[in-house]
Specification:
319 residues; single chain; globular; 16 helices; 8 strands; alpha/beta
């Protein structure tokens, strides 16, 4: 489903930073956060589907992905970006919202939901498990460490910036191919991403997320700091052939005790890292079913019960 003329263009502000956003529909608010290497167009299939289902869907451009949101202090920590999202919610003033995040958007969503759970009705994360556990525990899994080689490479300033830009961003095109094997996005999609990263300062900003994530303070975080609770009902979606974060690693790092309000894990067949773009009908169905259940106030009963019941919900193949 393509975005239609009903698409709205919004902007939000947090201090001196201004964030563009795309929106569709009316109803309960669903905020969508894109990842890397991507942009707000990542949710082009979700916005119209959510609008048709009776939601107001808003895809926000993250800090640094446009010139108006590049901070002078170069702060690309997850905490700073989560604060941006909370500022967006304050400006919307809709009461608690649903939050959907893919890749870095998922990492930010976990942090925002942990810091300000009162702002969120639900959380849906795609392609990235609990961000604290991934940073502390996921990169200790040899196979995943090998898959995450690019994170260390991006911590080489100037060298990685140059390597990513060369040959018309072939590095980015290869990431998409390797992270979602067997899938080819429409040419305009990748060109839009390259156009975004080609804006002055944006590529360094996007790589700055990785440099902040692997900073000394982040690496020295204690287990208690890394294993923070996310007290918001959470749906975790993973593509079965994700070449960025292995689906079984995602599942392994989705620990029930981290989610006091419950968590459901679902593995999307025949999809890789960009699962919401590869299998939009499947992901949209899962997402709308989840959000509708939250709105109908049925989820609390579904997630009630002892640890064994919650573990079953975590590992079942579907909802």
């Amino acid at each position: 489903m393509a975005i239609t003329a009903d698409l709205e263009h919004l902007s939000f502000q947090h201090g001196p930073l201004v964030f563009a956003a795309k929106a569709m529909g009316e109803g309960p608010v669903v905020i969508c956060l894109h990842g890397f290497p991507d942009n707000a167009g990542s949710f082009r299939h979700q916005l119209p589907a959510l609008a048709e289902a009776g939601f107001r869907a808003i895809s926000v451009t993250l800090r640094g992905y446009e010139r108006s949101s590049i901070p002078e202090n170069g702060d690309y920590s997850v905490e700073a970006i989560a604060a941006d999202i909370c500022a967006v919610i304050d400006q919307l003033d809709p009461g608690p919202v649903h939050l959907v995040g893919h890749d870095w958007g998922a990492a930010i969503a976990y942090n925002a939901a942990a810091k300000a759970p009162q702002d969120f009705k639900s959380l849906t994360t795609m392609a990235v498990p609990h961000a604290g556990r991934f940073a502390r525990d996921g990169l200790r899994i040899p196979r995943q460490l090998k898959m995450s080689w690019y994170m260390g490479f991006f911590n080489l300033p100037w060298v990685s910036d140059w390597a990513v830009r060369r040959r018309d961003y072939a590095f980015i095109r290869n990431l998409w191919r390797n992270w979602s094997p067997g899938w080819s996005p429409e040419p305009a999609v990748l060109e839009s991403v390259v156009d975004t990263l080609s804006q002055p300062g944006v590529l360094s900003a996007a790589l700055g997320y990785y440099r902040a994530a692997l900073s000394l303070s982040a690496l020295l975080a204690s287990a208690d700091e890394a294993h923070y609770p996310v007290p918001v009902p959470t749906l975790a979606l993973s593509g079965e052939r994700d070449g960025c974060i292995a689906s079984d690693v995602f599942e392994q790092l989705t620990i029930v005790s981290d989610f006091p309000q419950g968590v459901k894990f679902h593995r999307v067949a025949e999809a890789g890292h960009f699962l919401h773009q590869e299998q939009p009908e499947v992901v949209n169905s899962l997402l709308i079913e989840w959000l509708t259940a939250i709105e109908d106030d049925r989820l609390g009963e579904d997630l009630a019960g002892n640890g064994d019941r919650q573990r079953h919900l975590l590992i079942e193949a579907g909802l």
